[in-house]
What we know:
The protein has 2 domains: 1-36; 38-178, 2-Layer Sandwich (Protein Binding, DinI Protein, Chain A), CATH 3.30.910. By secondary structure, it is mainly α. It has a two-stranded parallel sheet with strand order 1-2. Helices cover 71% and strands 3% of the residues. Helix 3 runs antiparallel to helix 4 (95-149).
Amino acid sequence: MRNTLRTGKLSKHMALALALSMFLGLGTAANASAQEARIAAVNSDRILRESVAAKAAQSKLEQEFSKRDKALQDMAQRLKAMSDNIDKNGPSMAPSDRAARQRDLAQLDADFQRKQREFREDLNQRRNEELAAVLDRANKVIKQIAEQQHYDLIVQEAVYVSPRIDITDQVLKALAAASPAGASGTGPN
């Protein structure tokens, strides 16, 4: 009975290995005439770091959020100056004066924290929109390459990819050729 169970498990594993080898076009006598599968891989992280579209999206975000970032930096400097002033002159101030300045400081700090949180949320949302648009364009280019070069499978996430099947450079070049220089053309304004 034990051998039957072991054989049953073994046959499942063997069937899985046989199916995988047939898909990959590995040599069995019955599969000798089958065409070998063409497989490639793309590094999505490199696409998001190095592509013309990703760099244009980053520049667009920096330009879009630079005024708000500068306003937050100015507000942080005002907070520091107010805090330093209270620390330095607080002991010599009248208690009511010191309490009023501390309330003002607390109010400015709460306002700063709120604006900083809103800034981060807005920036993250816009970044996600821009990166999604870059990945969408990259996926279209990858599909075109797959159809033109007759790939059966192109993966984007893998633990290991042999440089022999990595077509990331080819995708980056195709994206650069398809993108107008310096314009990302994505997202709302």
